[in-house]
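User: I'm new to structure prediction. If I give you an amino acid sequence, what do you actually give back? Let's try with this one:
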Amino acid sequence: MAATWHIRNWLSHHVRRVTAARAMHAQSVLPGTISAALEVIRSQPSQYIVASLVGRRFILTPRDLLTVPHIKDVDVGDVLVLKDIHEVGSRDYTLRGEPLIPPGRVKVEATVVEHTKGAMEVVFKKKRRKGYQKTIKNKHPYTRLRIGPIQFA
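Assistant: Good question. You get back a string of structure tokens that encode the predicted 3D arrangement of the chain. For your 153 residues, that looks like this:
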């Protein structure tokens, strides 16, 4: 029992010390314009975006493989441009749109990799004492997308 208390005490003490040290180093000048903010994010080693696709928001990085509900009228190999980008960020900085980032500032493309189906879903329906039994089997269709590089304008 005493050992867990010592570990917890040590962790809480060092976590506070680390966050205080980060707070001292994190006092940097924030960029004043969108262009300057995008330049700072571009200089970071890895970036991400938050984009809306098929009515849902996704956190995406370059080379991600994304599975979404079936998108009609697209073939394998087609390139889609993500228009609804809500947020662009890196490890240290984030730029949020209100509600979207202007369309000309950030460009992200997604390539259709395949159309596939999900796992078999089995629904068994029964009414007691009536002799009614019914089995419904279904596979939902999905589209898989490969996210391309994040391009800043």
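You can read the tokens as a compact description of the fold. Here is one thing that stands out. Helices lie at 2-25, 34-43.
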